[in-house]
Amino acid sequence: MLKKLLVLSTASALLALGFIATAADKGPHDDAIKGRQAMFQTYSFNMGVLGAMAKEKMDYDADLASESAANLLAAANFGQSAMWPAGSDNSNPANARTRALPEIWSTYPAVVEKADALKTAAAVLAEQAGGGLGALQGAMGDVGKSCKGCHDDFRAEKK
C-alpha cells in the first residue's frame, strides 16, 4: 500500500510539473502573435496566387484573381488592435517565434502609413485583378512595394 501511494504521489508530482512546464512555455502574447501571423499567412497565400499569375507561372484566371485580390483587401482591412500588444516583439525571449521588431511600437505613425499604403494598393488591385493579365500585372507593383516597406523596416530576417 505504501509503495502504491509513493508511486501515485510521484506520478502526481510529475504530472503537476508537466502542467507547470507547459504553462511556462506559453508566453503572454502567444494568442496575439498567432493572430497576426495568421493574418500575414492570409496575405502571403493570396499574394502567392496573384504573383504566380502575374509572373505567368500559373494560368491567368479572372475569377480566381478577383477572389484572391478581394481576400487580400479584406485581410488588409482587419482590425488589428488586439494583435499588437506592447511587448509582443522579438526582443522578448517569451516571443521567440515572432519576427516583429521593437521598432513597430516606437515608430507607430510610420506603421500606420505603411498599413494605409497596403490598403490603398490592395483596393486598386481588387478593382483591377479580374480585368485581364495586364491589369493584374500593373496593379501588383504597389502592393509588393507596400509589403516590402513593412518587411524592410519592421520584420527581422529569418534565422
What does this structure look like?
The longest helix is centred in the first third of the chain and has 25 residues. This protein is elongated. The N terminus is likely disordered. It is built from six helices and no strands. The protein has a single domain, classed as Cytochrome c/b562 (Four Helix Bundle (Hemerythrin (Met), subunit A), Up-down Bundle). It is mostly helical and 159 residues long.
Total strand segments:
0
Total domain count: 1
Structural class: mainly alpha
Mean pLDDT: 85
SSE run: HHHHHH
Gross morphology is: elongated
Keywords:
about 70% helix, Four Helix Bundle (Hemerythrin (Met), subunit A), single chain, 6 helices, about 160 residues
Task: Summarize the structure in short.
70% of the residues lie in helices and 0% in strands. The N terminus is likely disordered.
Topology:
Blueprint: H1 2-25, H2 30-54, H3 62-76, H4 103-106, H5 108-128, H6 133-154
Helix pairs in contact: 2-3, 2-6, 3-5, 5-6
